[in-house]
Structure formats: C-alpha cells, structure tokens
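ABC transporter substrate-binding protein
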Amino acid sequence: MRLLTTTILAAAALPAYAADPELTVFDWAGFEEPSIYQGYMDKHGDSPTYAFYGDDDEAFQKVASGFRADVIHPCSQMVGKYRDAGLIEPWDTSRIPNFDKIDERFLDSEVFRDDQGVWFIPTDWGATAIAYNTETVPEEDVASLDVFVDPKYQGRTSLPDSSDDVWALAYLATGTTDWTDVTDEQFQAAADWLRQAHQNVAAYWADPSEQAQLMASGAVDVAWSWNDGVVYLQADDYPVGFQREAEEGSSTFFCGYVNVKDGPGSEDKVYDFINAWLEPSAGKALLDTIGYGHTSTEAMATIADEPAVAEGLSEIDVPVLAQTPNDPEQRQRQLAEFEKIKAGF
C-alpha cells in the first residue's frame, strides 16, 4: 500500500516539488523519481524543482499563459503546438552524447527534427489498454473494447481525462487504426461510440495515481489505462490485468522533453538533466517506477528480459493505434467534442 499511497498523495497534494532552484521541470506526476535521472543527482546533489500537470493540453495552456519552466515533458502529438506558439527552441545535440542512441523511429517526423534542428528529445513510451480487476471481470469481457459500452459495467468504468487517449480508444473501437487521416464518417462513428462509453463512466481520471486509487477503492473495475496505473496497482497487491490484445487493438504513445525558449534557470543544468535521462541505467529505473519503455536502444537492452517488458511493452498481434503527431485542426476538433461529451451533450 505504501507506494500507491505515497504516489497518490504526491500527485494530489503537491502542485510543485521545490528543490534545485536553477532548474524547473514541468512534468507528469510520477516522473520526479530521482533514480530516473540519477546522473543529475550525482552531479548536483539535489533534484530539479518540479511542477506537475495531468494533461498535455492543460500544460500547454499554462505555459502559453506565462508559467515559466526550463523543460517540459509533452507527448509527441503536442510538440508541434509548442513549436507553432514559439515557446521552445531546438536542442544542441552536440551537448547530448547519447543522442545517437535514441531509436530512430521516435524521431521520424519533421515536427521533431528538421533543417532548423532537433526540437524534441523522446525519452519514454508506453501503451494504453484495458486495466481490469481479475477477480470481478472475466477475461472474455475484456476480449473486446466494447466492455466500455457494455451495460453490465454501467458506473464501473473509468476513462482518462485526456482527449488523445479517449479518441485513440474510440477510433480503435470503431475500426480506425490510423488517426493521421480521419474522415468525417470515422470521426462521427468514434464520437457516437464515445457518447455510449460516457454512460458507463464513474469518473474520468486525471493522472495514473487517481486511476489506481479508483480501482483500489473498488469504485471501478475497468479502466483505459497507461502502464503506470497498472504498476501502482501491482505494488498495492491489487488483482489487476492489463489487456493489450482486445480484438480491436490498443494504443501506444511516446513522450519526451522540449527546451523552453528563454527558460528562467540554468541551460547547463537543462543539458545535465536530459543527459541523465539518456543514460542506459535510466531504463531499469523508468520501468520499475512507471512501467514505461525507454527510447534509448542501449537502455532497452538492459531490461529486455524483464517480465514487465513482456507484459506491458512487447509486440502484440492486434491493431495498434500509434499516438503520433496528427493534424492540429483535427486534434482541436476532437478536444472540443470530448468536452461536449463529458458535459453530457
């Protein structure tokens, strides 16, 4: 219970974690675990100052409104938004010795790397799939994403309060596995399905700690979950399964760090931080703490035989919707529609 309780309190009670005043990291709750960036700790003797958010769009709005940080941890589909707003600057990869160890598939976009430079250092990746109580939910019920619209689970499900993740779910459930070229018909089918799913939702979770708490308390039995929610529940000895192979598929995402233009802190410490993240030893720390994979091929090699990799990160034989950069107008349309659905319209 200790890990889950600690994580819940850290996410819910602390808007920021104050430490090194010369580096402010705007991040998802949970990533402040020092073992992930141990090289920074070894060099400076303290953690960066952390401020937390639970949703990519929330983070962008706060930064666009004047919140000052040195680095931010968006997922891939948000990088273009920061670029277009002029909020970030390219990384100097000559100051990042392990940059060439990043798996090229995570840099395969002009949004991330172009003739102006490298705008995004991808660091971590994971899956979004069905977390469920193995004692109350039969395996056959989670063989399909339609568990989220099954009347049997009315008031017993939870979805992320994240437009990207719920639309990934809705597209998969209605047969769309690539969101980079969505027709009006596909959008409408997904929206209709999401409205049905909304009828079963007990609560939309804001971060994985909240999702884990909802399940641990018995409030819900089924959730659309990232790997970390499952890790927290396993640490609490909760009977949790992670179904990534529903017949319609599951989703993947990856995230990383952007360098804020004119950040208030030390640029040298910005690079010390990202270099610590890209050390091979960060792979094991990231997996143990949050359940995510690392973008460094060397880091992944150190954890290739870990059971958690097989459970939550291995290749699967069903459709996978990759949450890669998509059309900004389409993404805004999805965000607006999701807000209507949550409001009951």
